[in-house]
Fold these 4 entries.
Entry 1:
Amino acid sequence: MNRIATVVALLPVVLLLYSYVLYPALLWVVAQARRPADEPAVDTERWPTVTMVVPAYNEARQIAGAVEALLAQDYPADRRQILVVSDASTDETENIVRGYADRGVELLRVPVRSGKTALENAACEVIRGDIVVNSDASIRLHPGAVRRLAARLADPKVGVASGRDVSVAAGDSSANTVEAGYVQYEMRLRALETRAGGIVGASGCCYAIRTDLHRIPIPSDLSRDFSAPLTARAHGFRAVSVDDAIAYVPRTHSLRREYTRKVRTISRGMETLLKVRSMMDPMRYGVFAWMLISHKLCRWLVPLAAVPAIVAVAFLATSYPWLLFILAGGALVGLIALVGALWPESQRMPRLVGVVAFGVAANLAVIHAVIRLLRAREDKIWEPTRREVVTPAA
């Protein structure tokens, strides 16, 4: 029994080290063994037409900034279409968008709340571009982002080009430094995956996809930014990360909002992976299947394996009393996380409390997402993450 308990106790540690240390190291080795792809030559006289899509629900505080950032893109005005899709907004969002009609901004209203993926599906009916760039109302794109994404798609082998997220502070978001560090880590990992063969998930903040691939139906309960690279791979294309296509992402200083966002994102990601689980077959998809398992599945297994591991450590502590210190340390971490969960949003959270609380919340969100998945609970009504208003200069 002690041997079994030891294996169970060590399993989350092994998964953690593999997912966040060994997997990136192996990726680096694979990337070094492959010759970097040459940047495709772009005919600057014949830029492809691009449709920029922004789903929005009651984004009166943010939508003007998002539209202005798209209008400021360094891209030929006669080759772009800016489309805001309203999810039956009830505030001034649609009136604000209509105010940009004379500058070519279009509004598509969906009369019944449908959700982000459903909005992106609805946009297919009015898209005129050869390339679709999907973004978000709270995100601000660097003026050169769309041009750089379009340039990467000049490679006929590339079907999806994902931007690079840059986490920026808005107001008092100093507590959520975990998110900032994680975003940097994730972007470096995507850069390695790009060199190793292709990314397995695009940034929901900004990614470009060939219109023919975008029009392939996606169930409204799935995640489009996750499924986009999978769709591309299934149709013989690669998905890549473009380091200089920058999207500024305001950090969420609210632990509750961040937790809700992660539960929703992870549960939809899990459902997406279940629908395309055949792509985890290494006999069919080779290195891509290995990256998909390592980047997604193994990460999700870490907090799930931690639950029985705690029980196993408690069992082993009867034979090895020093393990009680590990249990006490875990209890202290849980207590600090609880303090963070109860911390008033109007007050600044201490750095230590913020780091621990957001880190614990990220792992609990995985367990919560699995419970939702098992209960077959769907997000019937989309509630976008309410981020602080921020400018790229900030």
Entry 2:
Amino acid sequence: MKNSLCLCLSTINKLPLAKKIARHLIRKKIAACVNIVPKVISIYEWDDEICEDTEFLLLIKTLPANVKKLQREIKNLHPYEVPEFVVFKSAEVAPAYFNWAKKNTRFSR
């Protein structure tokens, strides 16, 4: 798809860490934008226990060519043993938004 973006999701337990990761991704031009959604409740199983935590959801917008680099950066910066990393590829992106996102990211291996 010519004008496609990827929306990548990740959660983290502390707002300062969420901001640190977001700023790093923007500074390195790996992502065009990161939204931080506060206080999502995550319920999951870990080590045979049902856990419930309040986390911050990162909504990360990037070019498809940057997804692998983004995943490596999340893994390196994230404190979790298994950080969430889920990617959705866009079906459609407004041309003006796509052009802005493309201008503010660059492909990096």
Entry 3:
Amino acid sequence: MKEIIVGTRGSELALWQAEFIKARLGAVTATPIRIEVIKTQGDILDQLAFNKIEGKGFFTKEIEEALLSGQIDVAVHSLKDLMTTMPEGLKLAAVGFREDSREIVLINKAAYDPDCPLSVGSGAVVGSSSVRRQCQIAESAPKLILKDIRGNVPTRVRKLREGQYDAVILAYAGVKRLELDLSDLEAAVLPHEEFLPAPGQGILAVQTRENDGAVNPIVSQLDDPEIRLQARLERGLLARFAGGCQLPLGTYSRIGGKTLTLHAILGRRKDGRWVGLARASSTGKEPDKVVDDTYRALVSQQDEYA
């Protein structure tokens, strides 16, 4: 091979992830590696809420098409952005490098109140376009006002600083990776016991062509079997609901020796309002059974998602 071309979105976080994987690939191959930026539908329609965008794979479809066409050789994604069904001809050659999967609330100082839920004062405006986050906020802090927000991590932080919101909730992984200066803001990291993240949050995914005999042996060296198992649990549950980022599902998995544990919540909605959460936890040694048990427990509480 003359070179390996790594495809990615152009946001600061996506470029950080691509550079990170490029460095890891550079440690296991002497082949030159370069990064190519590809704009996705989610980047173009960056002012619309996710539930207003048609189709699926908002942040991945165009990158996957470039991979299939041979324009790039490797695609780097946040695993939580990927659909649970892989396009024919592609594979997840490596899954790993999980950063802290918790959520973080960034708060303007005037709205900060450590005695209130989420450390945000009553009546404050919280930015989030994620239905998973919205249903959990409505459950734990019903006196907060929810308002849609779009944009990459630095854009959301800028909108917070401008006063468009009193607080925003973000994936802690992205904030940590970008090493943002947040000294002018208050921050509260939310424990998994209080607030569940998206399936696969904080995990990096490296996608390749299934039949690429030159690239796959290189990329596969980056795979982490334990993190792949976590992804199998969390995204396995997402797949059972045939859902994407528009599904109000939160998950968190733990692996202790041969024991697997999966925690999950599913938002309940009625007449356009969040009316509660279905909660479930399952433990076992067989991944598929743990997923199935969690799925059945959630469905038994919320038949409309069966």
Entry 4:
Amino acid sequence: MLPIQTESAGKTDTLRRNALGFGAVLMQGITHIAPAVGLVLTIQYVVSLAGVTAPLAFAFAFLIVLTLGFSLAQLAKHHPSAGGYYTYVSRTISPRPAFLVAWLYFLYDPASTATNLALLGFFLEKTAKAELGVVIPWWLIFLPCALGITVLTYRGVELSAKIMMYLTLAEIAIVLALALNGLLKPGSGGVNFHSYIPSAAPSANGLYLAVVFSIFAFTGFESVAPLAEESANPKQVLPRAIIYSILIMGAFFMLSSWAVLIGWGTNQLDLFVSSTENPVLLLARQFWGPARVLLLLAVFNSILGTCIACTNASTRVFFAMGRNGSLPKALAYVHPRFKTPANAIWLQTVITLVFGLAVGFWIGPDQEFYFMGIAMTLGLILVYSAGNLGVFLWFRGNAKNEFNPFLHAVFPLISTVALVWVGYKSVVPLPAAPVRYAPFVVAIWIIIGLALAYFMKRAGRPIPGVES
């Protein structure tokens, strides 16, 4: 039985104030984006879609996400809250669309810990078999990591933030060192810039799908927002952390993905895609020999860090929705000593275990990650678009004296159109299975959310708004 606490067991609804400074909040965004995972564990899939232009897919995704970041920063400046996009849409549009935004959000952060741990289990199982001839089932790696993340996030946001910072700095340094090796010792094809020529893509549809998946690689910048109530001076810290995390990760992905392909050899990318062992790990073996274990450490660090960041973000949204009645009030319980949303953390743990293990055994832990990556991104396109609309409505209505045509109209419009366009082109025509079923999962999820909102209204239970 889960240790669910009620208000009678220690009534408090206040998270720890001023617990996080700019550096910790910035690392929340960067860690959630997951630098090493975004490169080491996804570049092979992105190359299978976009070929040599995989770095271009990261570049297009970076530009789209940057415009989204500007919009989110504007909302974070005016509406700092643990609810993130749920709060923003509720205050700028209305509570009912905010409920649907939160419903779509449930496809993302609450499931992200599970999908990332499934991929970690798959990666380590495959690596142990190739390197040591030992078979360690992926779920034996999944379980202790999931429980360890629960303990860390339960005991306090400062502890988890400090661990995230050290893990992330280490993984970035290791991956950039490998990228530098690739540029200094290029493979077949030498140092070239074919990666940034659109016509070099094997197909337009493949490049679009690669852009969508690359947007997924960037997701996490918005996880800064739910830490508003635990951040010092959130109206200044949050917007800066959002933009800087996107800029840093944009430079990281564009440089490291290009350098890794150069190191492998752009004339041999067919071998990169078909490799049964992770090609980036093979490249590390070629350059570093036994020291390639550093790259394994970077991946392990990256996934644990991003899972901590995902859990911190999703549990704060659960907490905010429980606080105002959109979810059970028990989720608003805050541990009296650790000042963490204890019941929300237990709920997140259940989601991680049930979803991660069930889907991993069903379609495989690696396919769980790729399938959910597309599904999450398609859902987030609608979440981000709703936030963009909220920016325009808020500054045209409630903050006219601050209205800036570029920040509050042009950027939101450009990013929304770009998101919808690449989302559409990535699924028309449908990609190969099981990824081809991702848009149908999102559509069914939206229908369920609409049905819930309808029946709540029919039952006389209006969807609550957020706190003013």
